[in-house]
Amino acid sequence: MRKWCLMLLIVLLLAGCGMETQDGEKISDLEFTVLEPDKVPQELRDVLEEKKTAPFKVTYEDEGYLYICVGYGEQETSGYSIAVEDLYLTSNAICVDTELLGPGKGETTAGATTCPYIVLKLEYMEKSVVFE
């Protein structure tokens, strides 16, 4: 009898654990602005210039704004762009997903090594940033 009670208690405890909501669930999309390099704060611009030849993920806070930066390192040609696939809020984090898009067909890409990166500006929130 004792064995059955213990097994029942374990089953009930495990079932109770499955009832919790996941912290990774999307609460809402976030509004952001993609910044041109000359609009990026100078201190952050210096950091990005130093890091741009290798892939990087950087966050920076300044004057009530959060800057999320993603770089894809040195590319052998020009013509790359970066798409923001998703930027959203969960109960405990800001999640960002970007994608490097290659040069379009017929686009001239020879002769120029580039280091594509993107800087997203949004209102500051006291949340960690998760790069997907």
List the helices and strands and how they pair.
Elements: H1 2-17, E1 28-29, E2 33-34, H2 42-51, E3 55-62, E4 65-72, E5 81-89, E6 93-101, E7 117-123, E8 128-131
Parallel strand pairs: 6-8
Antiparallel strand pairs: 1-5, 2-7, 3-4, 4-7, 5-6
In the predicted model, the low-confidence regions spanning at least 5 consecutive residues are 1-22
**Mean pLDDT, nearest integer?**
84
Overall spatial form: globular
Please indicate the percent range of residues in DSSP E strands (runs of 2 or more): 35-45%
Give me the count of strands. Answer: 8
**Sheet of most strands:** 4 strands, mixed
Task: List the total number of helices.
Answer: 2
Structural class by helix and strand composition: alpha+beta
Report, as a whole number of angstroms, the end-to-end distance.
50 Å
In helices, the fraction of residues equals 10-25%
How is the largest sheet built, in terms of strand order?
1-5-6-8
| Pattern of helices and strands | HEEHEEEEEE
User: Over the alpha carbons, how many angstroms does the gyration radius reach?
Assistant: 22 Å
If you had to describe this structure to a student in words, what would you say it looks like?
With about 130 residues, the chain is α+β, with helices and mostly antiparallel strands. It has 2 helices and 8 strands, in the order H-E-E-H-E-E-E-E-E-E. It is globular, with a radius of gyration of 22 Å.
Give keywords.
alpha+beta, 4-stranded mixed β-sheet, 4-stranded antiparallel β-sheet, 2 helices, 37% strand, globular, disordered N terminus
What can be said about this structure in brief?
The protein has two helices and eight strands, in the order H-E-E-H-E-E-E-E-E-E. By secondary structure, it is α+β, with helices and mostly antiparallel strands.
